[in-house]
Amino acid sequence: MSAIGQIIGGETSKIFIRERSGSRIELGDLLVAEEDDGNYSILQVKDLVYHSQVPQVMRELASGIQLENRGSQVEFLDEELRNYIIAEAKTILQIRNGKPQLPKRLPKFFTHVRRIEDDDLKFLKKEIEDPLYLGNVRSGSKELKTKIHVNAREAIPHHILIPATTGRGKSNLVKVMLWELMDIENIGMLVLDPHDEYYGRNEKGLKDHPNQEKLRYYTPEISKVEGEAISLNINLRSIRPEHFDGIVEFTSAQKDAIKLYHNKFEENWIQNIIRGEKVENQEGTKEKVSPSTLSVLQRKFDNILGIYEEEGRLESRGGVFTTDAGDSTIKDIIKSLEDGEIVIIDTSRLMGEAELLVGSIIVGALFNKYQKYKAEGKLEEKPIIGIVIEEAPRVLGKEVIERQGHNIYSTIAREGRKFNIGLVAITQLVTLIPRTILANMNTKIILGNEMSQERSEIIASASQDLSDDNRAIASLDRGEAIVTSIFTKFAVPIKIPLFEEHVKDKISETKEKPPLLSPEDL
Ligand SMILES: Nc1ncnc2c1ncn2[C@@H]1O[C@H](COP(=O)(O)OP(=O)(O)OP(=O)(O)O)[C@@H](O)[C@H]1O
């Protein structure tokens, strides 16, 4: 492939390339500088600057004359020789004997550079186990054929963070990832889906995946769904006081009251609070819980769970939390996850806190089980578990944790890896999440972000040095991302496929598969 520029100087962190005129090098382009021995460096363009050898005063004079329309043909000097573009690039990788290495030396002076080709990325094609496809390598805004995978069994327990502002393609990316995970065995995924967008009730979604045995879809609106949905009913008896930890704020008087009701009524504690049953003290006379505390608790449970009392009966608004069904829902979900299935919970009809509570009940129970498995030495036989959580600062935010203490999600972020449980956390605002948690998220799939403070935080917590990528992150288009991970040698620019396109290919691929034996063989 032809040279599009030549190295004319620089230092380890910044190489200057003089662009061959008309080559149209773009920001983010990946370029290759070859050496005589077959080794080569991969460079990424970080900045572009005009360079002119014509003195400033002459340039001003020439443009002035042109502006005044007096001599638009004025050419003081040979344009191409005197004015050119310098691409400032960074060496991101050096390939020695086919193996990628972090750059330790400068490419040779005056080496010609060319655009990258798929062949230059052969080292990425080595087989990895349980490959989770994220997208294709991207050079600037041009997509290559080389696919980027991470090892799902490694990446998920080490947590994945997806930071992006709205509309940059977060949901699309998660849909693509879940679709891919449908083909990987021994990974259970719990997806709390507040926008009911992953199953694909009315459009393409996971329901269209050929491997349907791996999918469980829980929704309160089962009658409106074609296909195999399961009713999302959760019995109040499944809820324990600690499930509210760090999710719902209670005063100390309310916490005391909850403890009392739980001690006295055990699994029926919420029902009895809602019914306003009296709890007596040891003398059997006075109420221990003040009527005002009780009524605040009743109002909270009404708001969060949609449970209230009417004419002596407990009623359920929304029908998710009930007293007369859903005894086995949580157990069934946990079993599915332990069987390596993908469980989508349509929480679109629930209040934010109720959604987190549902997750808290499931994840809390699962975490306890996995702790036990580890103690018994059985953890490695169990599937990896991933939990997809949107608007992560609701549970991982500094303020929330400081105010309400740790919740099960922040516990997973800190300790889940030891028990093979990880988060796939999605957020628009990384700055709200403590650095310690961000540093624990070892794979970040960075989508476009126009907020400079957010970009700084993302860059500061990345697994690779992204200090030159501020502008690149700001200018990422929909579906364009940078993957930075402890599992990749360099921060890989990718283009995520549009889900509908990706699915179309996959569905037709499976349909077009030739029969194992031809008619003649038979
Ligand atoms: N990889 C992609 N390639 C091309 N277009 C894309 C890609 N990802 C998303 N888009 C387009 O961008 C639009 C927004 O995508 P998506 O809903 O995934 O963004 P989002 O970040 O989740 O937005 P929101 O925060 O509003 O939920 C989609 O309608 C889709 O058409």
From TrEMBL:
<keyword id="KW-0067">ATP-binding</keyword>
<dbReference type="Pfam" id="PF01935">
    <property type="entry name" value="DUF87"/>
</dbReference>
<dbReference type="GO" id="GO:0043139">
    <property type="term" value="F:5'-3' DNA helicase activity"/>
</dbReference>
<dbReference type="GO" id="GO:0005524">
    <property type="term" value="F:ATP binding"/>
</dbReference>
<dbReference type="InterPro" id="IPR008571">
    <property type="entry name" value="HerA-like"/>
</dbReference>
<comment type="similarity">
    <text>Belongs to the HerA family.</text>
</comment>
<dbReference type="InterPro" id="IPR002789">
    <property type="entry name" value="HerA_central"/>
</dbReference>
<feature type="domain" description="Helicase HerA central">
    <location>
        <begin position="133"/>
        <end position="363"/>
    </location>
</feature>
<protein>
    <submittedName>
        <fullName>ATP-binding protein</fullName>
    </submittedName>
</protein>
<dbReference type="InterPro" id="IPR027417">
    <property type="entry name" value="P-loop_NTPase"/>
</dbReference>
<keyword id="KW-0547">Nucleotide-binding</keyword>
<dbReference type="GO" id="GO:0043138">
    <property type="term" value="F:3'-5' DNA helicase activity"/>
</dbReference>
